[in-house]
Amino acid sequence: MKRIFLFHVILFASQFIVSQNNWQYYTRIADSLQQQNDYNAALKLRLQAVEIAQRTEQDTLPFLKLLSALEKSEVELVAKQSDSVFEVLKNQTESLKEFNPTPERIYRIYNKLYEYSNSKKNITDSDYFITQSLKYQYKRNAIDSLLLLETLQKSGVTYKQIGKLNEAVNAYLKAIKLCEDLKIKKPSVLGLNYMSLSELYRYRFLDNPKLFLKYLKKAQTVYENANAVNDLIRVYLGLSDFMSSTGKFQQSINYLKKAFKVYKNDVEANKKIGLDKRDVEKEMKLHNYFIEKYRIVGNEQQMLFHLNEMLKEAKPQKLLNDNIKDLICLSHLYLVEYYEADYKEKALFYLNQGKKYFPSKDLYFIREEYDLHFANVFMANNELTKAKAIIKDLNLKKELPLFIAKSALEKRIILNVKSEKYEDAYTDINYLIRQYYRGNNDIDIRTVSYKNFVPGTVLSDTQRFLNLAQAFETTAKTVITEKLYWLALKQFQANLNEEILNERVNALYSDICYYFFSKASQGLLAESKLNKFLIFTESIESKHLLNTFINNRKTSKTTALDSLIKKEQRLRTNITHLKKQYLENKSDSINQLIFEYNIKLEKINNQLAQNTNKIAGLVNTNAVLENIKQHYVIKFKQVRGALFRLEVNKEKGIKVAKIKNYKNLKDRVVEMVTLLKNPSSKTNSIVNYSNKLFDELFTNTNILKTNGEVYIIPDDILYYLPFELLAYNGNYLLNNLNISYASAFSFINSTNVYIEANQVKDIALFAPSYSSFKPSNLQLAVRGEPYYLEGAINEVKSISKLFNSSDIYINEKATKTSFTNLPNKYSILHLSMHSFINDQDAELSSLVFNDGNEDYELYISELYGLNLNANMAVLSACNTGVGKLKTGQGIVSMNTAFTAAGVPAVLSSLWSAPDMATQQIMTAFYRHLKNGETKSIALKNAKLDYLNSTDDPNLKHPYYWAGFILTGDTSAIILNSTDNWWLYGVLFFVVITILFLIIKKRPKIS
Known about the structure:
- The protein is α/β, with parallel strands linked by helices.
- Among the domains are: 624-741; 759-982, 3-Layer(aba) Sandwich (Rossmann fold), CATH 3.40.50.
- Helix content is 59%, strand content 8%.
- The strands form four sheets. Strands 9-8-10-14-16-17 form a six-stranded mixed beta sheet, with helices on both faces.
- Helix 31 (790-800) links the parallel strand 8 and strand 9.
- Helix 3 runs antiparallel to helix 4, helix 4 runs antiparallel to helix 5 (103-119) and helix 6 (123-137) runs antiparallel to helix 7 (145-162).
């Protein structure tokens, strides 16, 4: 009986298991078919699974029914492309989450939803679905790498569209990592990811030139290896645009030539095998690019050559499509822009010739662009009636691109100013600002203040405000003129994110500065406004230094500060990009993103404000004027060929003056520096120049009345001038003043920034020997001495004896590797070696270590990447200039690079002084430093010691001693010297003697 019962139990259980396996079996097969996109077959199996479960397990039914419904919706969505089916599938997918489905089951549905929402250009839904798909794909037990790669690429596109630029970057970086893991080198995959990543760093998006170039060059390598002609041309065009934006126009043209060569070679190669791959439109586009670049460099001959090449293809009998016609019209416009300022008849000729090629269908509003230029020419010729007619028609047109609509309105305002219709001009200015600059609904140009104006999100719109201001500048409406300049200033300041002050941007900055400096020099700018303007200039120039630091820094050791600054910059550019999107599409989701990113930005700015690093301090310049007013500072600023002087002191505040006839003054500076570098020149001649330059640079200042430190912030050619050598009544300033230098206001009074500024640890001294090193043709040697600097080696040995603890790196031990791997224990870095200052390209300035290794030059970009954390760097030996005296940028870049690396003070030489004099001055400098003198006083006294100890009048020539200058922090350094050990010895002896006498005098205890 028991056996029969047991048999029935086993039979029942086996039937239950079989039934369970049946519905699960059908579900597994359906899942497999779904992954193969066979939805109809999968749906049949799911229905069978539901039927089995109905007979066996009621709890499983809702889940299986939902799966069947999902399958049905997926089939219908593909077949019908219906919004209602899409909504049903979306809701079903959210319901499915309640059953905790496997990642394999749900991510594909999200992919399907993404494809549909993307096809409907529903960017918000697309963003959500692609994010969910990625989330579940990463949760899978066995990840389909190729599918994940495809999804990452799609997510990058979507995130870029919605404005989540940093998320897009992360998606492409993950895609590139997957390509590397899977060894995928296809240009259509790996190259595309690099191109997409570089695009995110364009000025329109995250605006990081360094990373844009980095990833574009990686794409270049991929496409060159694969000989992907069209993609390679695209890369070369991108590189050409980049070089042009950074002012490297010849390199820009060279990349264009590479693109043209790749195209021509491909055409010729295919011609040999009987294929015609000539693409007239592509050729036209390349010629158009050439004309654009040659316009920038002013090469009229090449512009005309490429235009004629285009016109050869544009013969009447040839059928031209509208794209080609548009390119021909645009090329004519470049000629018009070239001739417009000085050759108006030629400009008019090319306008009339170009309009013959107008496309039948206006693709890019080329006709309206021509109208704007016709109006420009007529306005310049004072044919105001013709110009007004054109502008009137333009302003009546609807749906114009923003830049044309704003330009047409701008020209109408200028025409009203020229016609003295000022009320109409004010009305149009108000309309321009209210219509195109969000947040200015109630603005009135007659009453607007700097504080109340909300700037737009386009940097180039600064030029628009400048054009209006310059139009009013010719009238008596000085109040309106000033207000427009303030608007231009705020527009510029709000949109300079990670951009370096290249030629285009610097032109805007210079126009703003020239107006305010001129007004201040005439006493027409109130103190509060002058302070506001100077805070602006300091923030812009400090931001320029910061961006140079970030963009040129080469380091594998990314610090927390690096990350913080980069986050701050990325957020700013991301917010700007989102604001631009919001203007076009006032979406709540974009507005919410702007709000959230602003909260993040505020947190980062608070962190930066608390950071004690010098470069981080440059971000926050609001308090800088109050700090420098405690000192006596003279800053020079060259703007548009004029030189302005800012005198800052506690008693008088800030005074601005315009230096007369800067062109002639520059010539005198060059002549004087030439005499200084020549030991055979006559000292009397130098003194004469010194007196003249003192009068020109310091007349009507209080420099002779100050008793303390004098800080000089030079500019342009003045970087080469040792100011302590200027003379008043034949007496050098060196005798009465302590002069030091700085690159910007922010670099003055840095003792509160460097917490460990007075805690000396050690000194490291470098003096390399050179066996084969010789300067290149660009590195023009000033001295004719051997490159084995025997005096430098004697110098460091002599200096080391002054310190208790010093490390000497001489001859072959003075390598670049030794320096870059220095521990952070050194307070002073003394470098007796060749250094090359390059004014043509400051980033090529370098320090030259021992040449036993292949890599022995340390360039500025590498110096930015070090974390030296020392109190002072001393560059004492051969300093070779490159090329003619030009801007001094090489000098300031070297000093700034050391500051960026954590060194607040740099003692350097403006020219190469002889070894013996250098040794004497350096040794004396350290002796005075040991006595507790500030760095500037120690250097001054070292020079005076040299002069007082030298009997030979020839050796008193400034060539031997005047070239050494101190830049940055001037505070004293407490040194641990060997001279103190005898004190410890005496003290020890005294203590022992006293103890001995005490013990001896004690009564003996029996």
